[in-house]
Amino acid sequence: MIRIGLLVIFLVTHGKGQDSCEILPKQPTVKMGSDLVVLFHAPPNGDCRKQVTYSSNRVYWRFNNKAIEKSYYRYNSTFAAVSIHNITLKVGTIECLIDDIVLGGTIIRAYSPPQNIHCVTLNERVKMRATCYWDHDRSSENTKYTVQLKQEGKPILKCISSERDCQFTESISMAGMNITVCAENPRGVVLCEEAIYNDFYLTLKPSHLLNVHVEPQSNGSLKVSWLPGTDTVKSWKHICEIQSIQESSNAKTVKKIEWIPTKGMSSYTIDGVQPCSKYTVSLRCALSEKYPWSDWSQPATALSELNVNTVLFQLLRTKDVPQGNGMRQMHLMWKGVPPSCGSFEYRLFVLRNYTNSTSDMNAKFERFTSTQNHTIITVDREAHTLLVAAYHNNVMKGKSSLQVPTSGEDFDLPPVNNLTAVANSDQIDVSWVAPALPVSSYMIVWNSTRHKHQWQQTQETCISLTAQPSHLYKISVSPLYGYVPGLEKSVLMYSKEGEPASVWNVHIDDIRDNRARIRWQLVSPIQCCAFVVNYTVFYKAESGPELNMTVGRNQNKVILDQLQPGTRYDVYIEATSFSSSSKSDLISFQTKPLGELASTLIILGGVVSVPIFVLIGIILTRKFLSKVIPDPRYSSVSMWSSQQCRKIQHLPQTASCMNTYSEAILPCRIETIERDISSAEWTSTEALHNCEEDQISTFSHIASISSLEKEDTVLVSSQSKWVIPTDCVQNPSLEPSHDFHLQLDCTVTPYLNQTPVVSPVETPEMVLGGSQKLCISQETEALLKSDNNGADGTTYIMVG
């Protein structure tokens, strides 16, 4: 029908001879959610036929650049039409096309009429005044609303407003009424909506209650009283709501009651309120659930009283900790009177031997305010009873006690297993696994550096704790085996991490031409406001890219290598948590020039080497000058073969020493002969009984050696000339009574490499007649003058 109507309108308004091609209606305005038919007219002489080969069945449509299904198309020889259903967009563009050529288009605007119309009527004694309200998604601030109120037998009342409510100034009767609200936008479009009230009381709003008062009761309840409103219908049953709000927690409670108004005061008692808490109470009423509610009454406040019979006293302790000398400490916690009841105090009694009678409570005690709920106590190894009592004006209102066994009976019972904590928005979810032994309950203690000590007792293996963001909480869980606590386990956790603390105390040392070491102070896990997971050192040269190196949370130093010599670097350290990061202050250093380190080492090496070389020279000089002639007192005589002696090269002699005694350094060593030589004499036959005749070249006799006790021992007999071949002497077996062994070899040893020996051709007396001095070298003369104390046993050899 809409489509046919639009076609008729078009035919009436457009006569013959029209040459323009166009879309109708132009820029239509429709009701939100309604349907619309859009037409495209192409007359036989229309300009659009000159652009394309026109045919109505070739036209297709788009709405907001999206193609419309062909099932919504209609057409004849000169018209093409499309239907658009359920328009919900405020603004939309529709176009018609042939071969992607746009032939025409228009803008569609949709408006919604006023909705949710509801009216209330106030009984103002003199007259009944109505006020209507509605919702409207208006597209312009200039929308004008017109409200009409119709009652049977009454003239129509009008109310004009630019807002979404309107109050009639005329009085109305207590009868049914029809309400029509029309909204007119700046484009002149008017959309209307209607509401019908057949029951007048559906609009009647009671006036608010008067003189609301709240009085605390001794049993901890609150008594609320009030008077009816000015227009409250007496003797009619009303539905009322009593709202109470606890000030400290902002917890709201609403109770519904039935009330029949009377001339006097009405009252109601609120139970289940928290003791010593401030409450704000207000009321409202209606004739029924479907009728309008009155406004909330003026609020009234009151402080609830403490009912000691309803207060649950709790007293718990942690596992004791030895302190030495038989003393032990434990953490004691209690709950009883709410902290808001400031006129109360707690008294702690420490009684021996499980005493729990008030007659013993005149002993010493410790006082605590109503806001204190824990302390650390110290007791000896004996059994005790810990009792906490609440007092008001020196009158005990309640108490709780627990027993502490002797230190030998307070066993280390197992803790919980797998304690974990997970941050969850503004709370921390804590869970654990129960130990193997049966557990009666668990004690959870949590606190932060900014909040008071809190604790809770539960029989579950999980709990959710309310926590402030960026505050570090220490959460401890202890199992309770009856009244005996088990070992405690703790965990640190944030409900929401903030920015970690910045790294400080950054040092740069061991700076070289191509490397440097960076050290810093680790961020403590208890520093606000996040846990550090790693550190990243960023460094950058004056001209170059920024580089970085990342290490774990427990490492506090890195070595930056492959640096450029003689270059300035800027360094800062970033501490990273799971959710944020922080940066240290910027610090700079400059690497040393290339080769500076090598030059420094060479200079230091030269300075150190000078005293070392001097010391080595002194040691070598002393070692050379300290060589001495062996002491003859610890010497023996051995035989040496002439064949071996011919291999010795004598040292050159000076002219003054020619044809006289010669001096030589013999490099061969003859092992010492161990025997008793105090009076022994032996011949060549006894010593060489195993030698072949051709191996012995010459043998005269062996010189006798005087006793070791004589100071002036003669080294060699003046008439001796002998040679013993070392290769023929093989440990000769001598007479057992002489008790000695003969072992000869010719090995070179460091001890005898430079043994000075005098080779006597003749005695000095025979050559010089006793008047000429023996000619020896200066080296030998110096050695002869040195002290021979402590000389070891040495073999002297006579060489002919």
TrEMBL record:
Gene3D superfamilies: Immunoglobulins
SUPFAM superfamilies noted in UniProt: Fibronectin type III (SSF49265)
InterPro entries: FN3_dom (IPR003961), FN3_sf (IPR036116), Ig-like_fold (IPR013783), Type1_Cytokine_Rcpt_Type2 (IPR052672)
Key words, A-Z: Glycoprotein, Membrane, Receptor, Repeat, Signal, Transmembrane, Transmembrane helix
GO cellular component: plasma membrane
Bilayer topology annotation: Single-pass type I membrane protein
Protein name: Interleukin-6 receptor subunit beta-like
